[in-house]
Amino acid sequence: MCGLSPGEVLEIKGPLGRGFELDSKKDPILVAGGIGVAPLLYLADRLVKMKRSPTVAPPRLMIGAGSKKELLGLREFKEMGLRVRTVTEDGSFGRKGLVTDLLEGMSAKGLDRAMIYTCGPQGMLRAVASWAAARNIPCQVSLEARMACGMGACLGCSVARPNDSGQGYAKVCQDGPVFEAREVAWDA
Questions:
Q1: Which alpha helices (DSSP H) does 23-114 contain, by range?
Q2: How far apart are CA 132 and CA 137, in angstroms?
Q3: pLDDT of residue 50
Q4: DSSP for 151-174?
Q5: β-strand 114-119 against 95-96: which pairing, if any?
Q6: Cα angle, residue 30 at apex, residues 25 and 33 outer, rounded to 5°
Q7: What's the pTM value of the predicted model, to 2 decimals?
Q8: Are residues 41 and 127 in the same domain?
Q9: What is the mean pLDDT of residues 23-51?
Q10: CA dist., res. 57 & res. 115, Å (int)
């Protein structure tokens, strides 16, 4: 794109796949790790602007990174009015630990109306999905995958589905990138 001149036409295909499904009756909890922050910024903006029942809690964000300098979007999330909790692996900002430690520290009170939206490294997504499943909390995960063609032909972005689903593999570019956590075979 650096070689383009002003005014040149650029053909772009998108958006591809499916995004997060918003639920105006659920208390949104966003869990971000590393560069997984990027899709959650847009999601947070949509959730804040969404018309919700007065009994629904405002969006909460739990964000983690390796260090303070790797934390992204904090100012933007706070300007939107989100309640933000942070953690870094080296302890340079917020609590020391993993973002999943913040989930473990949550009170069970009120989680019956929760909806988790998450994006980040595969290991983090697996841990968040497991935590949510153990508490019967719906959880949507945004997967990151190399998408060579973006049209489902190359199968480079395939992700295994649970054996009991009978559906084999899903294509992140077409069937995702957002999945219900239970639609992904995390140990495959």
A1: 37-49, 74-79, 99-104
A2: 5
A3: 87
A4: SSSS-TTEEEPPGGGS--EEEHHH
A5: unpaired
A6: 165
A7: 0.89
A8: yes
A9: 92
A10: 11
